[in-house]
Each structure stands twice: as C-alpha cells, then as structure tokens.
Amino acid sequence: MSVVDRARAEGRNKLYEHEAFELLRKYAIPVPDYGIAKDEDEAVSLAERIGYPVAVKVISRQIVHKTDVGGVVLGVTNRDELIAACKKIRESVKARAPYAEIEGCLIQRMVPQGVELIIGAVYDDIFGHVLAFGLGGILTELYRDVSMRLVPIEEEDAWEMLREVKAYRLLTGYRGTPPRDLHAIVDIIVKFSRLLSENPAIREADLNPVIALEEGKGAYVVDARFLLGID
C-alpha cells in the first residue's frame, strides 16, 4: 500500500513529512538523509549515522505548521545540542499546542546554503493538477514570481518555466554569485509532474524550500507538504 493510500485509509487528509519524503524518493526526487526518532537515544543514533549538522522537526498528526509551535530546530551540530533540541521542541509544542500528540521527531541532514525555490501544485476539478515554480522560502509571498503549467509537464516545458520567472537571472549567476544546477531543478519539476499524474488523490502539494546548489551539485527538497482528498 502506498503512503497516499495508507493515509487515506486512516482517514488522514495529509501526509506526515517522512511519508512525503518517502513518496518523493519513490520518484527519485532528491531529499536529504533522514530518519524517525521516538526518543533522544534514537535521535542520537540517527544523527551519528546521517552525519551532523542535522535539523530536528516534530512529528504530530495535529500540527500543520511546525515552526509556529516551536517544532523545528536547525543546525544541530553535536550530541548535546541534539538532546537539548529534542527537549526544547517537546516543551515548546506542549506549551503552544497542548492538544497535539507528539509521535517523535524527524532527524534530517542539513543541506548546504543555496537558492531557495518552491515547486507546488493544486488540483482543479476541471483541469487537473496545476504546477507552479518560483522563488521559495520567505520570498514566495513577497515577490509572487511564479510560472505555472498544467500537468503533465515535459522537460521542454520545465525549461520554459525556469526562464519565465524573474529569478532566472539569480539561478544563472547574478553579480558574482555562482550559477545553480538548472538541470537538477528541471529534473525535479518533471519527476514531480509524474508523481502528481500518478496520484490524483493529492489536492495540494508544496515542496518548499527546494535548495538549488551550485552547478553540478544538485538540488534537494528540504520540506514537503501534501494534502489529500478524502472520498
């Protein structure tokens, strides 16, 4: 059973983040190494296997926006910081979202700094999935610089989407900044389009941010959110 089918069978309208990463990996979309920890000991073991620095994120069915409840700690570099981060998240979530059941933490390898992008989609009852591409992170709502296409999207379409956004100059190298791995970005867009085509139950999806590294070093989906239709 796929993660989408399992979530719907359980009556959930969204995927946990680790389920989202599992779905992305099924379509060969790059995500950082990660694992699920139920307690601090498991978190330490995972971090030692994955390699520091890591991000720590709360896992809870009731929480949609983890940062709003203090459920994320980034840039953890050693065992002591990791144990403190797990404790901080647990205390913060209990204080800000006492209704939420904490099921554990996602331990995720940090990705080097790069250009933050968003690749998202919504489902329209008439046209099907509409895919959008643009600047990600906190810049998404500020600039609203996006390009959109109907799914399915081929490689040529993906290249056109890149060239249509004003941020394309930033991706190709602007004022001394290194160019980004455009081929890796296009590859993610095309594979994400296929994922959507083969999973019509997905009603909304956000890959934000997608970190575009320097040319030849790839691009990675750091955060992912999938909302599902429930029959």
Automatic annotation (TrEMBL):
Keyword Cytoplasm: no
Keyword list, A-Z: ATP-binding, Ligase, Nucleotide-binding
Chain ranges of the ATP-grasp domain: 21-57
PROSITE patterns: ATP_GRASP (PS50975)
GO MF entries: ATP binding; ligase activity; metal ion binding
Pfam assignment, any one: ATP-grasp_5
Protein name in UniProt: ATP-grasp domain protein
UniProt organism field: Thermoproteus uzoniensis (strain 768-20)
